[in-house]
Amino acid sequence: MLRLRAAAWEDGYGVVEDGGALFLVRPPYRKANKVAISESDLEAAVSKHGFTATDQTFASWAALIEHLRRRFLDERKGQVPDSDRIKKLVERAPTDVVASYLDRIEVELLPRRQWRAANGVLAHLLRNPAVRQDTNLLDRVSALLERTELGGDVDAPPLAEDFPLVEELYGRVALELGDRIRREGQVLPMGSAA
Amino acid sequence: MINFLELCERNQDRLLSQFGELLNGANSRTRKTLVEFAEAIKAKGRIGVNMRPMVLLDFLISDRWFNIHQWAKKTSARGGKPVEVILREKLRDYFDRRMAFDGFFESGLEFRYGALNIGGLGAHCFGEYCAILQKEAHRSCRVGYLKGDSLNHYMAAGPKVDDGRLRVECAADGQKDMLLALKHASEVAAKPPDQWPDMICNADCYAEAIVVEGHVKAGHLSCIRIGKVDFALYWDYAFREFSGRLSELDRYRVDAFAAIDERLQLLGVSWETV
Predict the structure, then answer these.
(1) How far is CA B64 from the centre of its chain?
(2) How far apart are CA A107 and CA A123, in angstroms?
């Protein structure tokens, strides 16, 4: 049995007691985001760092993390993530990040025919001072932009990213159906007609 | 009521004499290292505060660093619930000890707690962002230091403050180097200087910096330190936003990072990855 002893709901952080040991967990809830802490750290978390003391029990880590996720989303309800602000980050990316973005466009997006996604990243990169001041980076961006323009306006459906051979084997309709199921759940009629 | 800054000032002679004794009793190699360590603290020592994303964003937007009492007051003004009820609900079992410590000092309810930092990520389990204040912030507000965590080291049963111990383990800004050299005397010589930042400030061990007077503003920030892995992850999220492959939770998190980055750029404050 796991006990949630304290939480900072708005950030998804939690202090969890598991078999007498205490752990601090936080998003994105990977192994590296679970750190052993002491009882005095728990007190510091609540008394100085704004965590709220609580006492809830959970049967599993999955249930506890799901609870933290849900409370996080409840706390943010009413403030939709600002997609434009997130995308504009690319305009301020440091040089090493820019280089990795260009690699990823070549290796991940273009082979999967994610033209619009690639084009979006590249358009924002053109406004990045690190790109504008570096002719090599600028040349790479321009060359990639030409390739995305040849690709067209319509991206391959997102499922194609995960299963690149589906279209080749079963046709585009399979990709579109897969994406619809992913979005909407069950889309085909269930049970037998009366 | 006790004035914390006066206590720190009064401990100056003791620290000077203890530090002198420490140097006199050490061999020449250790003495040299201790002096270098104390100089590093003096030159690089800054107040660091580990903040979670929404805490840092709130600080950048409101231009105020709130402690728990100020937060409760603000919450009370919004919802009408008495401050004490809000604090009791939030702190539960820890309410009495927090109130006993803060209530022991003049202006104790105004205290803001950070840690002395010379280059690391601080106690990052409490917040992935480590806000580092400029040296100038130390001049525009008054700060005192404790050898360890206030609640962990200086509270006795009751709960009441163990002021006997606290009086000999506090320092004013001018003597923080001696306080730290005395604290880490046995480890300093054995560790290379690049390990000193993590040695003096991590989740289990830090010297507490208590800002007693003055406003700490966003303009006082020197940099924001963040772990390399977290930093890379946020840039990865920004990339994935273009192909619509982020979970709702990750979109909120990268949106907060973007809002923080936007404001840091306006302030001319940079990121430091560790």
Answers:
(1) 15
(2) 18
Of A50, A104, A117, the CB nearest to B68: A50
In three-state secondary structure terms, A4 is strand
Token look-up 């800004």 returns B173
Could B128 and A85 be called an inter-chain contact, meaning their C-beta atoms sit closer than 8 Å?
no
Per-residue exposure over B50-71, b if at least 16 CB sit within 10 Å of its own CB, e if not: bbbbbbbbbbbeeeebbbbbeb
Average pLDDT of the residues of chain B? 95
Look at A83 and B241 and tell me if their CB atoms are within 8 Å: yes
Q: Please give the Cα distance from A188 to B120 (Å, whole number).
A: 55
Average pLDDT over residues A15-35: 96
User: ipTM of this model?
Assistant: 0.92
CA distance A10 to A75: 5
pTM (2 d.p.): 0.89
For residue B110, the SS3 value is helix
* Amino acid occupying residue A81: P
Structure tokens at B50: 């580990």
DSSP state of A128: -
Chain B residue closest in CA terms to A77? B252
User: Can you tell me which residue has the tokens 């907060």?
Assistant: B256
Q: Does A72 touch chain B (CB under 8 A)?
A: yes
Q: In whole angstroms, what is the distance from residue B13 CA to residue B65 CA?
A: 32
Residue with tokens 């952080």: A13
Retrieve residue B110's tokens: 């105004």
